[in-house]
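TL;DR need structure tokens for one chain.
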Amino acid sequence: MTTIDRPSRTHEPHGDDVDPGHPRRRAVAVVSLAVVVAVLDGTIVDVVLPPLAVDPGASTRRLQWIADSFLLVITGLLLAAGGSGTDTAANIR
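>> reply
TL;DR here they are.
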């Protein structure tokens, strides 16, 4: 019976082998933080909407516009920040 020699695999870092300063780990941390902030901001807007409906007398349609426009701006800012970060990281390499 013949044996097949397989090429040895190079050691690839997994889990704890990757240092905390690794660019991928930092990118994941930044994206995770951005998602948490976006969800938190959306929650804050949802909490503020009922008093807006009672005190100034905003209609349901206007409240929906307020929530949608706020989340649209936050999402646009996240996309812009992500794009500028990608361009910066690409220029470093």
